[in-house]
Amino acid sequence: MRNRNASEEITNGIAITLRSYTRAINIQEGRTGSLFRQKTKAICLTQNDTITPTYLNTSFGTLININTPQSQYPKICFNYIHNNPVKAGLVSKPEDWEFSSVLEYHEIRNNGLVNIEIAKEFGLF
């Protein structure tokens, strides 16, 4: 058995969750097939022209202008997730989406569901 990296583990975990959810809904509704449109398939976020230099606050100090996809990927994912409702035309700003954690990151709401300190440590906002 080969060792998986963290990214593969997360991807596999999400795949198992989606398959289980689909199976449960199909049983409940007496149907078969996919619940999700093709658009929900994974896309490569690192091949986006919007990657910009970033910074990471670490226990060793601040690392500035790191141009490696590995260090920018958390910020790219963070922005991608929070901008999905805007991209879908559901709201005009990410903070207008009531189900978004962006409200907690901007300290507008506090449900205790996010760890702002870790997000700041990764330079996500």
Describe this structure in words.
With 125 residues, the chain is mainly α. The chain has four helices and two strands. It has helices at residues 6-29, 69-87, 102-105, 116-121; strands at residues 54-58, 61-66. The longest helix has 24 residues, at 6-29. The N and C termini lie far apart (38 Å). The relative contact order is 0.09.
How is this fold's topology laid out?
Blueprint: H1 6-29, E1 54-58, E2 61-66, H2 69-87, H3 102-105, H4 116-121
Antiparallel strand pairs: 1-2
Highlighted features:
125 residues, 9% strand, mainly alpha
User: Tally of extended strands?
Assistant: 2
Largest sheet: 2 strands, antiparallel
Order of helices and strands: HEEHHH
Strand order of the largest sheet: 1-2
End-to-end span in angstroms? 38 Å
Class per helix and strand makeup: mainly alpha
Mean pLDDT figure: 77
What percent strand?
5-15%
Helix content range:
40-55%
Radius of gyration based on Cα positions = 18 Å
